[in-house]
Amino acid sequence: KSSITNKADFKLRKQLDEADDLLQQRNVDGAIRLYDDVLRENSKSPRALFGKGMSLDILAEQKRSNQLLGEAISSMDAALRAPNVPAELLRIISEKLAERQTFRGWNHKAAQTWKYMSDKYPDNVDYKRKLTVSYLTMGDNVMAREILKNILDKNPKDGFSLVHLGFILKTVDLNYEEGSRLLQEGIDTQEHGTVDGRFYYHLGDAYMRINRTDMSSKVYKKGAELGLFLSEHQRSLYNAETKLTGRPWWTPEQTPYGRYLAMLEKNWETIRDEGLSLLDQKTGGFLPEEENLREKGDWKQFTLYQRGKKNDVNCRRTPKTCALLDQVPDATSCTRGQIKFSVMHPGVHVWPHTGPTNCRLRAHLGLRIPEGPRIRVADKTKTWKEGKFIIIDDSFEHEVWHDGTESRLILIVDFWHPDIPLQERRTLSPI
Ligand code: LMR
Ligand code: MN
Fold first, then answer.
1. Which atom of ligand 1 is nearest to the CA of 410?
2. What is the pLDDT at residue 178?
3. Mean pLDDT of 176-180
4. What residues flank ligand 1, with Cβ below 6 Å?
5. Is 281 a residue whose pLDDT tops 90?
6. Can you tell me the mean pLDDT for 275-295?
7. Measured in angstroms, how far is the CA atom of residue 394 from the centroid of ligand 2?
8. Alpha-carbon distance 410 to 276, whole Å?
C-alpha cells in the first residue's frame, strides 16, 4: 500500500488498513466509522476521504439514493483535491470518481476531474483523451477541439485525436476535405478507439460529397470487413442482436403486414387529402429535414408517431389518418421508427445515406406523385405510384432526386422488421 500512502496517512496506516479491510468485507458502516476516526485526526487524509466515498457509493447503490451518491462523489472529489496525494492513488481516485460522475449524469463534473488530472500531468495524453470524451458527451465541441489540437501539436500522429478532430471538422464544420484527411489518417493508425463505425461512416460520406467515390467505396468495404457495417451497402450502426433478413427492396407479400398495407392503400385518398390540407395551411407544421442529408432543395416532414409514441398535437390536425394508423400496432409501436408525411419539392437531391438502424422496414405510400421524383436503394432505382406502397429497408444506402416541376407527397410508415423477436423489440433503445 506504500504507493497510495502519503506521509500523514503513513502515521494513521493501521486504522486506514483496518478500514479498507472492513470495506473489502462490505462492512460499510464499520468502514465509514473508522474512516471518520481518521478524518478527525487529519481532515485531508486522501485515503480516508476516498475510502469513505467508496463506502458511501456502496450504500447509495444499496439504498438507490442519489443523495448518498452525491455525498460519495463529494468525498471522492475532496480526496482528489487533497494535498500530497500519491500519483498512484490519484490515478485510482480519478478513474472511480469520473465514472461515478458520469453515471450520475454529471458530465461537466467528470470533465472537471479530467481537467484537474490533465493540468497536473500535462504530458499524460490519456487524461487529455478522457477530458475530450467528457467534453464531447457534454456537446462542448469548442473545448473538445481545443484539447485535440493541443494533443496533436505535440503528437501529430495520435490516432484518437485525428479521428475525433476529423469527425468534428466533418460533422460540425462540414469541412469535407480537411475532415476526410484527418479521419483517414486516424483510422490508418488502427489505434484502439479508431476502429469505430461512426468514423468509417463519416469518412466515406465526406469522400462521397467531394466526389471521391472510389475512396468512399474503399472505406465502406473496409468497414464491412472489420464488422463495423452489416455490409458495404448496409451501414446502419444501431442493429438488432438477432440476425435479420437484409434486403433493400421488399414486397408486401414478403412481410407479415399485407393486410395493414392493403387497409391503408384502400384509404389512401383520405390520407392524401389530410396531408394536402396541411400543405395548404400557411401555418405549416412541416419541418425541414435537419440531418444535413440534402445537397440541395426543399424537403419537409410532418411527424405523426415517433419512437413508438403518438404526436397528439399533430394527430389532431390529421385525425382520420391517425385513426387508421391506430389499427396498425406493428408500426405505431415501432420505437425505432416514425410515421410521417414527407413532402419533397422539385429540385431536391438527397445525398446517398443510410438510416441509423436495421430494425425497421420503411413503407412509403404514394399520395401525390408527379413526374420527376425517384429513389435508389442499393442498386435499384424506382418511383412511387399514387395509392400504392413501396417498401424499403433504409439501413441500405439510398438516394433521392426530384427533377420535376410539382411537389411530391408520401406517407412514410416504419414497421418493425419482421424478424425481430417480440421480446427483443422491448429491449431496444428508442431511435
Ligand atoms: C428517405 O427515407 O431518405 C427518403 O426516401 C424519404 C423521402 O421522403 O423520400
Ligand atoms: Mn433516408
1. 8
2. 98
3. 98
4. 342, 344, 350, 375, 394, 398, 400, 410
5. no
6. 87
7. 6
8. 10
Mutational pocket test of ligand 1: of 299, 302, 368, 375, the residue with most ligand atoms within 8 Å of the beta carbon: 375
Q: Order of strands, edge to edge, in the sheet holding 373-377?
A: 294-296, 349-353, 398-402, 373-377, 380-382
Read off φ and ψ for residue 192, nearest 5 degrees: -55, 130
Q: Complex ipTM, two decimals? A: 0.95
Q: What is the DSSP letter of 227?
A: T
Of the candidates 148, 93, 352, the residue with the CA atom closest to the CA atom of residue 232: 352
Phi then psi dihedrals of residue 238, to 5 deg: -115, 90
**Ligand 1 center from residue 365 Cα (angstroms):** 11
**Three-class secondary structure of residue 147 per DSSP:** helix
Look up residue 1 and give its amino acid. K
CA atoms within 13 A on the CB side of 130: 23
Q: How far apart are CA 386 and CA 374, in angstroms?
A: 13
Question: Quick one: which of 120, 116, 125, 84 has its CA closest to 97?
Answer: 116
pLDDT band at 285; cut points 50, 70, 90: confident
First to last CA, the chain: 47
What atom in ligand 1 is closest to the CA of residue 299?
8
- How many Cα atoms within 13 Å fall on the side-chain side of residue 408? 30
H helix or E strand, kind and range, residue 374: strand 373-377
Give the closest ligand to the alpha carbon of residue 357.
2
Average per-residue pLDDT for the chain? 96
Look at residue 1 in the predicted model and tell me its pLDDT.
Answer: 83
